[in-house]
Write a structure and sequence with these properties.
The structure is a single chain. The longest helix has 44 residues. The chain is globular. By secondary structure, the protein is an alpha/beta fold. The chain has one domain: Up-down Bundle (ADP Ribosyl Cyclase, Chain A, domain 1). Helix 4 runs parallel beside helix 9. Strands 1-2-3-4 form a 4-stranded parallel β-sheet. The termini are far apart. Helix 8 links the parallel strand 3 and strand 4. The chain binds adenosine-5-diphosphoribose. The site of adenosine-5-diphosphoribose has 16 residues, from strand 1, helix 6 and helix 7. This is ADP-ribosyl cyclase/cyclic ADP-ribose hydrolase. Keywords: Disulfide bond, Hydrolase, Membrane, NAD, Transferase, Transmembrane, Transmembrane helix. GO terms for molecular function: NAD+ nucleosidase activity, cyclic ADP-ribose generating; phosphorus-oxygen lyase activity; transferase activity. Belongs to the ADP-ribosyl cyclase family.
Length: 266
């Protein structure tokens, strides 16, 4: 009898210990995930001076926290974008599609020549991050979130659509777009560049759009590609269009040789 009681006590103790460990583990995991995106947000934000990072974080969270992660409209991020206006120098603006790495390697080294949305305050804070809210929860999550194409109104996609629209609205002068010769459709109608940015470039504020077709070995397309006709058709007719085929190593050279003048990169 006594022996049985002792056994029951030991079993109860083990169950309680396992339950406590599980609960502690889960809540610690949650805090850590939450801390990771929040601390990334703040450490990236604080590299830019003169911004109230807490205010930006609060506006960021307000857009998606406690919401169905497939039902966050683009406009939800308007207050955040409005709180961090873009671009001191709109003349250096670079757009891109399918060329993320080559473009950002270049702009990291040649801030004197070009910058992209991902070099602006909000773009650089949120570049490469994944996040969402959930109905009935007060946190920002980074796992269990819908992927880019799982549903149209997911928070990540809505943020980038909102930011890209504001970025394109701010463009002026001669703007550059780096497209990829490695795909058969460098001007892809599904892309943010084609679906949001191109149609928002407006003359006379913007005078020209200069496409750089980045050609790797065995490129599949160049400036004669049929999809570029669609680009020209969608572009404001008062914006001058040009396209130049440029080998990828030439773009890399521009990054590695700061003595090359911006206008002579390709
Ligand atoms: N899954 C996840 N992320 C995606 C997906 C996808 N299927 N498609 C696009 N993205 C995100 C990724 O972060 C990717 O690096 O969009 C980025 C760019 O995708 P691209 O198709 O290469 O280019 P595009 O959609 O045209 O967007 C680039 O928008 O970011 C702005 O101003 C920027 O001009 C640039 C343009």
């Amino acid at each position: 009898m006594v022996w049985y009681k002792r056994k029951e006590n030991i079993a109860g103790g083990i169950i309680a210990a396992v339950a406590v460990t599980l609960i502690l583990g889960l809540s610690l995991g949650l805090t850590r995930r939450q801390k990771t995106i929040k601390s990334t947000f703040f450490s990236r934000c604080e590299k830019f001076k003169e911004h109230d990072c807490q205010k930006l974080w609060d506006l960021f969270e307000k857009a998606h926290v406690n919401k169905d992660p497939c039902n966050v409209p683009v406009e939800a991020y308007d207050p955040l974008i409005a709180a961090a206006p873009f671009i001191p120098d709109c003349k250096k603006m670079m757009f891109w599609s399918g060329t993320k790495d080559v473009v950002h390697d270049l702009t990291a080294k040649r801030k004197d020549c070009y910058f992209t949305l991902e070099d602006t305050l909000l773009g650089s804070i949120l570049d490469g991050l994944m996040w969402c809210g959930k109905n009935g929860k007060d946190d920002t999550f980074t796992t269990g979130c819908p992927g880019w194409s799982d549903c149209e109104n997911n928070p990540v996609r809505s943020f980038w659509k909102c930011a890209s629209a504001a970025y394109a609205d701010a463009a002026c002068g001669d703007v550059t777009a780096m497209l990829s010769g490695s795909t058969t459709t460098p001007f892809d109608p599904e892309s943010i560049f084609a679906s949001i940015e191109v149609t928002r470039l407006k003359a006379p504020r913007v005078s020209s759009l200069n496409v750089v077709m980045v050609l790797q070995m065995n490129a599949k397309s160049d400036c004669t590609n049929a999809s570029l006709k669609n680009l020209q058709n969608q572009l404001d007719p008062n914006i001058t269009y040009s396209c130049k085929d440029v080998a990828e190593h030439r773009v890399e050279q521009c990054g590695s040789q700061p003595q090359i003048m911006c206008g002579s990169c390709w």
